[in-house]
Design goal:
Elements (H helix, E strand, L loop, with lengths): L1 H20 L8 H12 L1 H4 L23 H4 L4 H10 L19 H15 L6
The structure holds heme C.
Length: about 130
């Protein structure tokens, strides 16, 4: 009886620590990762919902882009969005507060973020 209890406790603990050690595995698909990456790398400025109202937003000279603004976002191509995320605002004619991410994120992660932005604005590029 006691042994059985201890054994199941052991299995339970193992299961918990396996889960805790690999939180990314729970959301392995591209957009799952993109949503995580967005919260991790973008939300402090652009807001958790992408509305441009992150915690740091008020400290910046230029307001972070509102990614839920479909009218604006549909005027930007995926390539333009990719380049700004990758190389930063200064390289693409925007404010330098927008950081580059090409040294900390893989190309496929940045492509995932572009798709995530398209979900946030519920839009695609339309001339
Ligand atoms: C330190 C704050 C900060 C962080 C972190 C940040 N941004 Fe920005 N971002 C800005 C600001 C400020 C602008 C607006 C620049 C302007 O209007 O000149 C901007 C602009 C942009 C644009 C504008 C592109 C366009 O075509 O108008 C995109 C896309 C963007 N950010 C995506 C992201 C993504 C994705 C992340 C996370 C990987 C991120 N940003 C992280 C501050 C930030």
């Amino acid at each position: 009886m006691k042994k059985g209890f201890l054994a199941s406790l052991g299995i339970f603990t193992l299961a918990i620590s396996a889960f805790a050690a690999s939180p990314a595995l729970a959301v392995e698909d591209e957009l799952g990762n993109a949503a995580n990456n967005y919260q991790l790398y973008c939300s402090m400025c652009h807001g958790r919902e992408g509305d441009g109202k992150g915690q740091l937003a008020e400290t910046l000279e230029v307001p972070p882009r509102n990614h839920t603004d479909g009218a604006y976002m549909s005027k930007r191509t995926d390539e333009q969005l990719f380049k700004t995320i990758s190389e930063g605002g200064e390289a693409t004619g925007f404010n330098s507060a927008m950081p580059s991410h090409n040294t900390i994120l893989q190309k496929e992660d940045i492509r995932g973020l572009v798709k995530h932005l398209r979900q946030l604005c519920n839009c695609k590029y339309a001339k």
